[in-house]
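Kindly inspect both lines:
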Amino acid sequence: MVMQSWEMVCDADYEFPLQIDLQDVEVHVRGDVGYVTCLELVRTKGSSSWGKQVATNVFEKVDGKWFMCIHHASHFDE
């Protein structure tokens, strides 16, 4: 199931550029680790509808710079 979902993402015929709007952004930091949660509204070029997903991005601070080490998003239905 995981491989199939990645194949769908990689094989999708997106029309770029993507427009991504963020809502409900929350930032949490403890030492050299932080994470951001948000609702991502995504729309492709020429589309009138938005896709919604809940996202979590985890960051690690290395030598004074922040690097994303994990990204997770799940489809969101209201």
